[in-house]
Design goal:
This protein is α+β, with helices and mostly antiparallel strands. The protein has three helices and twelve strands; from the N terminus they run αββββββαββββββα. The protein has a four-stranded antiparallel β-sheet, with no helix packed on it. 16% of the residues are buried. Mean pLDDT is 78; it is low at 1-23.
Length: 191
């Protein structure tokens, strides 16, 4: 049996050393609470999100290491606006141990010119960046695309439609007149 070549012994030793050495690593993720939203034409949408420090992470996710966030509106329909309070303020006390999570407000989608026509729209791009203990930037961009269904609740076929006061009053008068007419017919039938 021939001895192993020197390079092979060195490679096996290096592999063994790297597999036993501890390596600090931040493994975070985040996602929107919902990628499908419904709104009225003039409604500003709140993008609620959830950040998670993976149980496989070997360090805490700290708000002091927050770098930046990127948000995009829906082209020609909504402008993206920063959250209030800001992400810096929301993450000020952030200290998530591996396996811990937190809900936060990522940003807002504001209708351009105050109004979006009813319909279904999709798009937008979002990312969130932190630094790990070694200073390397860790970021994650969700793969999902935002879907917004804009509905005009003022249409008569909408079950949540509330009639104008004049229409409601006219309907009430009509019902009252029908009730009076019915009462008169009953009275005449008894006589």
């Amino acid at each position: 049996m021939s001895p192993r070549p020197v390079w092979r012994r060195w490679a096996l030793a290096a592999l063994a050393a790297t597999s036993t050495a501890s390596h600090a690593e931040l493994q975070m993720s985040w996602d929107m609470r919902s990628w499908s939203l419904e709104a009225t034409p003039s409604e500003t949408l709140q993008l609620h999100a959830h950040i998670h420090n993976s149980p496989m992470s070997t360090e805490h996710l700290l708000g002091s290491r927050f770098v930046a966030a990127y948000g995009e509106g829906l082209e020609g329909l909504y402008d993206f606006a920063p959250a209030t309070p800001s992400l810096v303020e929301q993450f000020a006390q952030l200290d998530l141990a591996p396996g811990e999570s937190m809900d936060f407000l990522f940003g807002l989608l504001v209708p351009i010119n105050g109004h979006v026509e009813p319909g279904v729209y999709g798009g937008g791009g979002y990312s969130l960046n932190f630094r790990d203990a070694q200073g390397a930037e860790v970021s994650w961009q969700p793969e999902a695309s935002l879907l917004v269904r804009v509905v005009d609740r003022a249409t008569p076929d909408d079950p949540q439609h509330v009639p104008e006061p004049a229409t409601a009053a006219l309907a009430a008068l009509g019902l009252a007149a029908a009730g009076c007419g019915r009462r008169q017919r009953k009275a005449q039938a008894r006589a």
